[in-house]
Amino acid sequence: MAQKLNHTSPDLLIHPGETIAEVLKDQKISQKELAIRTGFTEKHISTVVNGKKPISSKLALKLENALGISASFWKNLQTNYDFEVESFKEMNNITSEEDEISKEISKPVEVLTGKKLDSKETPLKVLLLRQILGVSNLASITKLASGAYRAQFGVDTNDYVMYVWQYLCEKQCETQTEKKLDIDKLQKNLPKIKRIMFKESKHHVELIQEKLNECGVLFTVNQHVPKAPIHGLTVKTKNDQVMIAMTIRYKYVDTFWFSLFHEIAHVIYKDYLADQENEEKAKAIEERANNFAKDILIDSEIYDRFVEKKDFTPSKIEDFAMKNNVLPTIVVGRLMNDGYIPWNQNTLRQKYEWITD
What is the pLDDT of residues 258-316, one digit of tens each? Predict the structure, then answer.
């Protein structure tokens, strides 16, 4: 249920930029023309009109000349608006800490929900984020977030963004299946999951989801956002289910399939139950999952014999891929990762069109 806004209506918070927009419309003046008249950039005028920047004293003076409306009018309008914003924040207990948190998590929320928050004023944005994330104060996120897997991602992650990413991924797929986790069935399904790579690429996610759901595993794929898991995360959800949530950067097919089987390994080995705050333990868990993914895609002994011949021409790679039931791009990705061919030699390396950078 949506959380109601407290004490006052957000409709009362009308940024002075809206008044500028109305005057421009009445006087049949474009933002570009106003920029020329005032000496400000068109981008600056746009950010003010769209409520992302205040009317400064300098701009107020320029507006007086450009629009024939006194500078004091514009400054009073801005002062009154600022007062209303602070009153709104006070009545809704919005702290400066929440203001800062909202800046960290707005983009990830936009990516994962498809809701545009950029045009929202900070107080309204905070309230909307509270609703979306099911909290009464954004600062409580750190208390809700699990740190059990933090060490595996290093220093580039952010606890607030991690929580947002995991929480919204769970929301996306929580109704996929009610089946309990069946690891035996999952292991038997591995060859079927692997064969999906030969299906039409736009159906890969739905077909993988179907096979994983049969085994009691939730599955979702989302666009990568900064300071969230680089490729994926496997966790036990609040509803006591196991979820694989993936985020693929750069669209590469080999990255997607390696990451998928890497996360499946975490399910099979029940790594989602392990406390991975210890860096060494997390490293060992990740290495085991990496080896699992490599062997599922290409048997290591067969691969070693192939690289010993040092013939990595496209025809040999394609032939090796066909004999080992993988796409040539999978072999190319492995060879690049192991340093046998350079990263820029990617004529056989494919990308997914449905993944957004």
Answer: 999 999 999 999 998 887 677 788 889 999 999 999 999 999 999 999 999 999 999 99
Chain segment 64-101, per-residue pLDDT in tens: 999 999 999 999 999 988 888 777 776 678 888 998 99
Residue 83 tokens read as 């007062």
Sequence ranges of the chain with CATH classification 1.10.260.40? 10-91
Q: 3-state DSSP call for residue 76?
A: helix
Superfamily grouping for domain 10-91:
lambda repressor-like DNA-binding domains (1.10.260.40)
109 contacts 117 by C-beta, under 8 angstroms: yes
Phi, psi for 24 (deg, rounded to 5): -60, -40
Joined together, the tokens standing for residue 221 give 């794929």
Task: Note the helical H segments in the chain.
Answer: 16-26, 31-38, 42-49, 57-67, 71-91, 96-113, 122-133, 141-144, 159-173, 183-195, 204-214, 253-268, 279-297, 300-308, 314-323, 328-337
